[in-house]
UniProtKB/TrEMBL annotation:
One Gene Ontology cellular component annotation held by this UniProt entry: cytosol
Protein residues bound to Mg(2+): 95, 111, 115, 163
Residues spanning the signal sequence: none
Assigned keywords, A-Z: Hydrolase, Magnesium, Metal-binding
The species this protein was found in: Acinetobacter rudis CIP 110305
Full protein name: ADP-ribose pyrophosphatase
Length: 206
């Protein structure tokens, strides 16, 4: 049980010796020189140099409608997937970057309207996680929300921000087919749909 609740080391076991900003734009990149403790050894590591991408926290939500037996995903172009063998247009949960002092839940409510036209009231927190802790300090807060989905999808997004987002409404009965396909290529959507599968299993047992 210890491995579940207690980390082996903490922040005080890392010594940062030098930090240098090497790029500052929409993202900020720093080069960090550091030493850290080692497992099963005395002392610290030799000096290591790592680059870290600083990115604001983000939040996303899976919208679902038990009455209609549907859930919502969005599809949009992503530069990081430009070399994807299937498509740079990725299927995702509704999501966005926290703006200023905005909370994750406020961010989700704003993004839900912008990307789907849906109002969201109650939110269920699923996970908060690092999408790519090997290089980036972004934290992603993932939620689900039961809501009343529209009868059909559409195209949404804030045009002035370069958004062109297609809303898909997917039947619950197609969930397993989607999970087995090669169209899900990012962690939040896979995690959210795995949660939805558990949710549907609970409904079936009631």
């Amino acid at each position: 049980m210890g491995i579940i609740h207690n980390a082996s080391f903490g922040r005080n076991d890392v010594t940062i010796e030098k930090t240098e900003t090497i790029f500052k734009g929409f993202l900020q990149i720093e080069r960090v020189s550091l030493r850290h403790r080692l497992f099963d050894q005395m002392g610290s590591s030799p000096q290591l140099t790592r680059e870290i991408v600083h990115r604001k926290q983000a939040a996303g939500v899976l919208l679902y409608d038990d009455q209609q037996q549907k859930f919502a995903l969005i599809e949009q172009f992503r530069i990081g997937a430009i070399q994807d063998p299937i498509s740079p247009w990725q299927l995702e949960v509704i999501a966005g970057i926290l703006d200023g002092d905005e909370t994750a839940e406020d961010c989700i409510r704003r993004e839900a309207v912008e990307e789907s036209g849906c109002q969201v009231d109650r939110l269920k927190h699923l996970f908060s996680f690092y999408p790519s802790a090997g290089a980036c300090d972004e934290v992603f807060h993932l939620y689900s929300a039961a809501t009343h989905l529209p009868q059909q999808g559409g195209v949404f997004g804030v045009v002035t921000e370069g958004e062109n987002i297609k809303l898909h409404l997917i039947d619950y009965e197609d969930l397993d087919l989607l999970l087995d396909s090669q169209r899900l290529c990012n962690a939040p959507v896979i995690m959210a749909l795995q949660w939805l599968k558990q949710h549907l299993f609970t409904l079936d047992r009631l």
